[in-house]
Write a structure and sequence with these properties.
single chain; alpha+beta; 3-stranded antiparallel sheet; two-stranded antiparallel ribbon
């Protein structure tokens, strides 16, 4: 599901709310999450999961097209750990569809 699809689904579900307000709200939530992670903060949404930044050490890699050696510097990646409720609900719904 894309962000636009999520917004459309919310607009259909909550038709009484102004579509522009739904769009702005979803965009603002994501922007706030991005800013918080960029500052090094951890985000925990109870029942859903947590997001945190992890640092990957520099390493040597290679370009698969050319085989050329490439040095990758230190980088930060977002790590998501699903909450127990999210895992359980996904598994229950997947089992119903199977």
């Amino acid at each position: 599901m894309t962000r636009a699809e999520m917004i459309d689904k919310l607009i259909r579900k909550y038709g009484q709310i102004n579509p522009k307000l739904v769009d702005n709200s979803v965009r603002e939530i994501f922007e706030t999450m991005i800013e918080s992670l960029a500052e090094g903060n951890r985000i925990e949404i109870r029942g859903f999961g947590s997001f945190e930044i992890r640092v990957r050490a520099p390493r040597d890699a290679h370009n698969p097209k050319t085989g050329e050696k490439v040095e990758l510097g230190e980088r930060r990646v977002v790590h998501f750990k699903p909450g127990i409720e999210l895992r359980d609900r996904v598994n229950v719904l997947a089992a119903k569809e199977a």
